[in-house]
């Protein structure tokens, strides 16, 4: 038995947004369970003990959005620094700015093209495919930037990151990476960007800080030994479920493919290892995809040591059932499987599937928060107003 009005499975941004809204707006008692021993899902961060440098434990998290409602909402819980994300990539022993911009193009072709000259060159190199008709990531990449740049910066990095041939991946994966014919090297195009001044965990804790919200950690929804498990709770209380959708149905329609990441963290006795927050490694021969150096996310923090730094190498591979599923791979078979799971969801009228894992979608934080706000307004508010 769950002693609450609403059970939320998963304390990531999706689950916490639902919990916060339900407690504050509807006065509901909310029980949030998470199988991990901390709240916050993949956005969780903690100070590395030796240096005090804030480390994003599940890979670097950069907050950005153009959604004004989401920006206003998140600003209730935290202030943001003026951090603007920039990324570089090491290809064949040379470092280039990303996303691909005029600087990248001119460095790569050892030229001084104007924007129009670069556009004309890339249009010619990209003429093999049209973006509109591109059937997969490779065709889309070539249609956007031409084959030489695609093969240098995208092909092998993508194959390393997704462990899937780019011809089997959807083109949308790289729609996230703009191409620019000027020297603007900001990673994101969004209107609002920054990092939480006091760190991610302080922000996440403030969302959960309400007398009506109880958080139970180390509690797996599929462990039948407690009252908030799938076996006990389904049918007795409305549930917002943000775990993996295939797991919910015990893989009845097969496993959807996910990528997971392995991180190798190191404290180094240098003040600055790479001079920037994120360095990608485009070459197939380098086993990791990128190195994060966390001090660079918070240049304003004067308490960080000047003689030590924390770096994290990121490796990507397919997830097994025992791994944390991070990224939906989204091949054609996956999309067909997802449709079958969506049909099964219809047999669970009191369970609301949300978040990255629950909808099998590549969601950024602002998208997870935005879709939680929509679910709250469009589904939970009507549900609880008729129930009363
Ligand atoms: P999650 O954060 O994954 O939370 C789901 C929670 O459910 C987890 O805590 C999990 O333990 C819990 N759970 C799962 N199964 C069960 C179960 N059976 N029982 C109990 N609990 C369960 N977004 C950005 O905006 N910018 C970025 O730079 C960025 N970088 C990212 C980098 C990486 C490596 C990853 C993986 C994601 C990144 N994201 C980024 C996306 C961001 O992490 C997500 O948008 C956000 O975390 C989504 O929140 P969520 O609540 O849907 O999922
Ligand atoms: N990508 C690439 N080369 C890079 C960076 C990104 O090919 O140096 C491609 C890759 O397919 C990746 C996608 O662009 O999956 C999106 O990149 P992003 O850095 O936004 O992904 P994330 O941070 O979510 O891993």
From TrEMBL:
Residue ranges occupied by any UDP-galactopyranose mutase C-terminal domain in the UniProt entry: 152-362
Assembly, per entry: Homotetramer.
A GO term for molecular function: flavin adenine dinucleotide binding
Catalysed reaction, written as an equation: UDP-alpha-D-galactose = UDP-alpha-D-galactofuranose
Cofactor: FAD
Pfam families referenced in this protein's UniProt entry, alphabetically: GLF (PF03275), NAD_binding_8 (PF13450)
Function noted in UniProt: Catalyzes the interconversion through a 2-keto intermediate of uridine diphosphogalactopyranose (UDP-GalP) into uridine diphosphogalactofuranose (UDP-GalF) which is a key building block for cell wall construction in Mycobacterium tuberculosis.
Protein name: UDP-galactopyranose mutase
Associated pathway: Cell wall biogenesis; cell wall polysaccharide biosynthesis
GO BP annotation list: cell wall organization
Cellular component, GO annotation: cytosol
UniProt family annotation: Belongs to the UDP-galactopyranose/dTDP-fucopyranose mutase family.
UniProt EC number: 5.4.99.9
Keywords: Cell wall biogenesis/degradation, FAD, Flavoprotein, Isomerase
Domain of life according to the entry: Bacteria
Spans through the membrane: none
Species this chain originates from: Cryobacterium tepidiphilum
